[in-house]
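Before any further analysis, backbone shapes were mapped to integers, which produced the following:

***
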Amino acid sequence: MQIIDHLSVGVPSIEDGAKFYDGLLQTLGANRLATTDGFAAYGRETVDFLIMLPFNQQAYSAGNGTHICFKADSKDQVNAFHAFAVANGGTCEGEPGPRDGYPNPDVHTAYARDPFGNKLEVIFNGFAA
């Protein structure tokens, strides 16, 4: 059983966030499953990830040292996720490729920041493989 119900990042507006994340998460076969004035929820079959307006009604901010890692089903999905992020207002934080330090020898991962400063990782054959 998983110990995490969902993860979320803050965005300046649900509309702006959804413009980016709708396409980005489609590269992994996930879709927007629910939307309210305060959040948009994404997943394949159940909600795993949300973009949110901060509950305290203060400005959103990206965490320093914090990142969210999305699980890909293939190296091609890693590459597509990273390419989409960089082509749609995100910035590269690490090109797709192998990384040392993971227990699986065939790990393939990439890093990017979304247009709002949140650091994202996408991985194939990572810890949850």
